[in-house]
Specification:
alpha+beta; 3-stranded antiparallel sheet; about 55% helix; 5 helices
Length: about 110
């Protein structure tokens, strides 16, 4: 294959490409619940509260997740849910990843 015929590798969404944020989005997308609590995410993803909080803030700022703060009894609760924009962005990211893998596999033939 000539160099000019090769496809360039995809440009990944830098917000999603960071490992912790990708894990959060995949976790939310694969959850049976529409909203997942901060404590559950922290435990299941084995993240510190500080790191999880920062990553959730970045995803919320990008419009990929919605954070809801409330009180359950007298205890504060933070829930996170994937937005339609976040779902589309994750699907696009995964499609780009599949395209990159296909380029790699095709190049080895």
């Amino acid at each position: 294959m000539k160099d000019e015929e090769r496809s360039a590798p995809p440009e990944f969404d830098k917000v999603i490409h960071e490992r912790a944020r990708l894990r959060i989005l995949v976790y939310l997308a694969s959850s049976q619940e529409a909203e997942v609590g901060f404590t559950d995410m922290k435990r299941d993803l084995a993240m510190t509260a500080g790191n999880l909080s920062v990553q959730l803030g970045t995803l919320e700022e990008a419009g990929y997740i919605l954070l809801r703060k409330a009180f359950v009894g007298k205890k504060p609760y933070t829930g996170a849910s994937l937005t339609p924009i976040g779902k589309m962005a994750l699907e696009c990211y995964l499609n780009e990843m599949e395209s990159m893998l296909a380029l790699l596999r095709d190049g080895k033939k």
